[in-house]
From TrEMBL:
EC number(s) recorded for this UniProt protein: 2.4.-.-
Superkingdom of source: Bacteria
Designated name of the protein: Glycosyltransferase
Domain Glycosyl transferase family: 197-367
Residue stretches making up the Glycosyltransferase subfamily 4-like N-terminal domain: 22-140
One Pfam family it belongs to: Glycos_transf_1
Keyword Transferase: yes
Keywords: Glycosyltransferase, Transferase
């Protein structure tokens, strides 16, 4: 190529990169992008103006994140992703002059924007790798009939996620790349192991925090819930919204939390501590006996799982989604059949989580879930995408 590979990474308009506190996809990109740049890849990041990640170039439509709008009625939020994608397309067309980006400097788009990113860039003249981060049972009319027309391919974040994808989407898949965490590259905090269990995730029905709270009361174990409720990152912020905004309960996660989780909080056996980041999050997880994952959905990627392993904390929960493949090494986890709350309660009451191997957890993370491992996986996928879409030489036989 004669110059560094340039990849436009589309993070979407919802949260900054890196995020402050909770941020799933944005946290993944904050981990991935620096490693891509260490591999010599130029990164153009499409994000919000509040992003502070060091990149080669940045494309911005919205100065501030729009996550608070994400669960608003469709007619209020429909233009947000559209405006973001329009800005990216104008940038691509302005650079390439219609020649596929070779002269304009963007060689490949790596999209992480749900639904929109799968279809918006198909005719931009640049090859597209679209990473699937979410439940592929959604959007059946899109995923079940998708045709990338030789320009768009996809990857998953686990083998289990792709195994459950519609056939049309699987035909476009190059494989999977597991998520990673910078915690796998450094020693964890120097804290003692306590008896509490932790659930580190956005509070939403699929993550099962209401099940975790019930298990605490059934077994006598303490459970700490850490994560945001909708756009609200603290108890004070949620209380203020409920007191001042008559539409606050329109957010489905807020309504579910108020109805199903809040009645089980007692400040002792079950606590919600809001969305934690940095040292506070690491100390909470590292001091937990285990992370509890009574999932109601097929978890596709498991960021919280790999973070937990990197901190030496094993995982206990239901065998759903990616958990069996992330916890397939002895001593790193304890999984029961999906929705078998009684068996999970018996194991927790007996303290079975205390028999798991914290050193094995850390070793697995260092081997499988470092940022460098993830970046090399994506570099290999970029090479494959570009090889598939390169013009073929023609001439006389």
């Amino acid at each position: 190529m004669g110059r560094p590979l340039t990849v436009l990474v589309d993070a979407g308009p919802w949260l900054p990169v890196p995020p402050q506190g909770y941020g799933g996809i944005e946290a993944v990109l904050a981990t991935l992008v620096p490693e891509l740049r260490r591999l010599g890849i130029r990164v153009v990041l499409a994000t919000v103006g509040a992003s502070r990640l060091e990149v080669d170039e940045q494309i911005t439509t919205f100065p501030e994140p729009r996550f608070a709008d994400i669960a608003a009625p469709y007619n209020r939020v429909m233009g947000v992703a559209a405006a973001h994608v329009d800005a990216v397309l104008r940038e691509l067309r302005g650079r390439d002059g219609g020649d596929g980006g070779v002269d304009g400097g963007v060689d490949l788009v790596h999209s992480h924007l749900e639904a929109w990113g799968l279809v918006a860039y198909a005719d931009a003249g640049v090859p597209v790798l679209h990473t699937l981060h979410w439940d592929l049972g959604k959007h059946p009319e899109l995923y079940g009939r998708f045709d990338g027309r030789g320009r768009v391919v996809v990857n998953g974040v686990s083998a289990a996620q792709l195994a459950g994808a519609p056939a049309a989407l699987r035909r476009h898949a190059l494989g999977h790349v597991h998520l990673a965490t910078p915690l796998a590259d450094r020693p964890g905090p120097d804290v003692g192991v306590e008896d509490h269990l932790v659930v580190l995730a956005r509070l939403t029905p699929g993550k099962g925090q209401d099940v975790a709270a019930r298990l605490a009361h059934r077994t006598g174990r303490r459970v700490v819930l850490a994560g945001p409720v909708g756009p609200h990152h603290s108890e004070a912020a949620l209380a203020d919204a409920l007191a001042t905004d008559p539409r606050a309960r329109e957010h489905p996660d807020v309504a579910w939390f108020c109805d199903r989780v809040a009645p089980l909080l007692d400040g002792d056996r079950v606590r919600w501590v809001g969305a934690l980041g940095g040292t506070a999050r690491d100390r909470l997880v590292a001091s937990a006996s285990a992370q509890l994952c009574p999932l109601r959905w097929e978890e596709p990627g498991g960021t919280g799982i790999v973070e937990s392993l990197a901190l030496g904390t094993p995982v206990v929960g239901y065998a759903r989604g990616c958990l069996p493949e992330l916890l397939d090494e002895p001593g790193t986890g304890l999984l029961v059949a999906r929705d078998d709350e009684d068996t999970l309660a018996d194991l927790l009451a007996a303290g079975a989580d205390r028999t798991l191997d914290r050193d094995a957890c850390r070793a697995a993370a260092r081997r499988r879930f470092t940022p460098a491992v993830m970046a090399r996986g994506y570099r290999d996928l970029y090479d494959e995408v570009l090889a598939r879409t390169a013009p073929r030489a023609t001439g006389a036989a």
